Amino acid sequence: MSHLNRQWFPATVPAKPSGYYAHIIMLRVTESYPLFQTDGELNTARVAAGLADKTPITRLTIFKRKQTTPERLVGRELLRRYGLISPEPVFDSKDKKTEDAGGLPLDEYNVKFCQWTPDAIVYGYAIGDTGSERSKVLSDTGFSITPYDDSHEAFTLNAPYESGTMSQRGEVTSRINEQDHVIPQVIFPTILTTRDLTYPLFRYVLNNVMRTKRYGAQTTRTGRVDNQVLAIVLCDGEITSNLAFTQRVYDLLVARNAINPPDPIDPSLAESVVQEIIPGMIAEEGVAVNQLLMGDELAEELRFLAAETSSEAGMKALLEAAFASSQQYHDTWLVKTKAKK
After folding, report:
1. 72: left (phi > 0), else alpha (psi -120 to 50), else beta?
2. C-alpha to C-alpha distance for 248 and 225, rounded to whole angstroms
3. How does pLDDT run across 222-254, given as a tens digit for each residue?
4. In a domain, 166, yes or no
5. Which helix (H) or strand (E) segment is 327 a member of?
6. Which pairs count as long-range contacts for 278-282, CB under 8 Å and 24+ apart, including other chains?
7. Model pLDDT for residues 251-308, shown as the tens digit of each residue
């Protein structure tokens, strides 16, 4: 059974921002040794430990694109798997052909976007002279609860030869490197916001969040992250930042003596703290809340989504509904706008 108020969502994606904000509040918990890095170094920021505790600390960060890009690619993978976009590669962004021989839209990430898919309308695009669409998924940098010193570990990496050793024909390879990794059970409190999406398109985003398991660099070998969704908020504006959210969680965990490095934070304890602070945190933002979905009702909502997408027919139905919604937006606003020029 679905508890999410689907009547609140706009029937169609509006042409202009219209104040339909749906927030997915979650904890991103590392389950292996991911790499959230730029130029070979883990991303960090020097910030206050909490809202009450103003002591400066260095925290690990996940930049916004390192969160939404893996989720976007999972959605694209599903659209391709269920025959809604073409699997045919596109090598030239200036190629005028829009469909393959089977009539499926040609779409290549960061090369040539089909402008009427859920991926394009939800996450946006901007490539050359093909036009642009602003993202309707608003994300922000995520911050670890625990300090950098307690949240990473350096590993020595090597690339052995076929024999399994580092030498061949009397020569020793220099393919040895040291790399910092984020350790398991590092927690990043995160709020992912969608704006002006229809109910099918919001479920498309939520399904991408639930399905995505790997983040950061070298995602074929590491990078496992568990997205623990703890609330969905439907309201008329944005709510707090990821940094302020993390600082609130930190203050309460410290008050309960739950941060004891080098021991990791118990994710279940972090969950209970987040569920405790969410209502007050949202109330302070001054937004008009239509629905705050938490606890048993949220758990049932997520089970409802998982039950639907656990079958091929159910997954295809969800994707087709999202596709119909994005197609309608494209045909109503994007095509007409171009025709007037």
Report:
1. alpha
2. 22
3. 889 999 999 999 999 999 999 999 999 999 999
4. no
5. helix 312-329
6. 278/25, 278/230, 278/231, 281/239, 281/240, 281/245, 281/248, 282/233, 282/235, 282/239, 282/240
7. 999 999 999 998 999 999 999 999 999 999 999 999 999 999 999 999 999 999 999 9
- Which contacts of 333-338 are long-range, i.e. CB under 8 A and separated by 24 or more positions? 333/15, 334/115, 334/116, 334/131, 334/133, 338/131
Q: Is 200 exposed, middle or buried (0-12, 13-18, 19+ CB in 10 A)?
A: buried
CB contact at 8 A, 299 and 63 = no
C-alpha 21/C-alpha 6 separation (Å) is 13
Residues β-bridged to residue 178 = 156
pLDDT at 56 over 60: yes
Domain membership flag for residue 38: yes
Among the residues of 36-182, which ranges form H helices? 64-81, 118-123
Residue 260 lies in a domain: yes
| Domain total of the chain | 1
Find residue 294's DSSP bridge partners: none
Tell me what the pLDDT averaged over the chain comes to.
90
What is the value of pTM for the model shown?
Answer: 0.92
**Would you give the distance in Å from CA 177 to the centre of its chain?**
30
Q: Residue 93 falls within a domain, yes or no?
A: no
Q: Where are the beta strands (DSSP E) in 196-313?
A: 225-235, 289-293
Beta bridge partners of 125: 133
Nearest Cα residue to 81 out of 328, 304, 318? 318
Structural domain of residue 289, as residue ranges? Answer: 6-63+134-152+183-340
With H, G, I as helix, E, B as strand and everything else as coil, classify residue 137. strand
8-47 exposure pattern, b = at least 16 Cβ within 10 A, e = fewer: ebeeebbeeeeebbbbbbbbbbbbbbbbbbeeeebbbeee
The alpha carbon dihedral of 316, 318, 322, 324 has a sign of positive
Residues 6+ apart with CB under 8 A from 33: 153, 155, 181, 182, 183, 184, 222
Q: Which residues pair with 191 in a beta bridge?
A: 25
